[in-house]
Amino acid sequence: MDQGWQTVDIDGRRFAVRRVAAAAGPALEVERSPTDRVRLRPWCLDDHLSALDRHAHHDGQAPRLDPDGLAAEILARTSDPPLDAESASELAPLALWWASGGDSPVPASAPSGLRAWSSLDRARALDACTDPATGRLALGSYLRAMIAASTREAPPAAASLALLNAVTELNTPAIDMSEGPGSQALAQVTLRLCRALGWTPGQVWSAPAAEVDRVLALLDRLEAPAPAPAPAPAPAQRRGGLAAYPDAVIIEVGEG
Prior knowledge:
With 256 residues, the protein is an alpha+beta fold. It is built from 9 helices and 8 strands. It has a 5-stranded antiparallel β-sheet. Strands 6-5-8 form a 3-stranded antiparallel β-sheet. Strand 5 (56-58) and strand 6 (63-65) form a beta hairpin. Helix 1 (45-55) runs antiparallel to helix 2, helix 1 (45-55) runs antiparallel to helix 5 and helix 2 (67-78) crosses helix 3 (85-99). It is elongated, with a radius of gyration of 31 Å.
């Protein structure tokens, strides 16, 4: 095998790959056989967020992902030459690995100029990215809003997924979907914090989202109802007659 090739093991399946230079960034070449090679073009941040809107959402309980649909779109948009359905199914695990950054090293430090988004930033993103009819939150649009709030300017379309990793890591403590997306949850949280802290809504919305979550966690702990006391044991019932004296000896006296 030529120099630069490596074996990638994904879920027990092995793929022979190597990175090659391309105009828009490094591409991935896959050797399926000595005479059959496929190249996957670069998969940038804009590609990824757009695809997530079609194949991932939050339903108010947990994030949902259609990995097969996402992998099929990645291969349809990046593979050269185009693949048939059987080949696309074979390379689906590799496509997801490639779209998530492949073996690119994680940057040791976050890009400069990032800031944690505020509670208001997050609330606006939830409202803007949630379908009011179904309650579904479009995850790609939500992550795009998070990036816009955490950077000084919109990132270029060809930005690396490393930026997404840095922004989500910065804001991870602020992501809590336990109440589900929507304005009603925001109103309840805002009023609760205003009453507890004596803040105005503007102070709540401008506070760092991570700090808001920490205060809510403390309030949950303090306001949790005390555990009910254990019921007292029932008093022993007094038995009457001879049953009260199990060791008694009965002597029968009869006529002689």
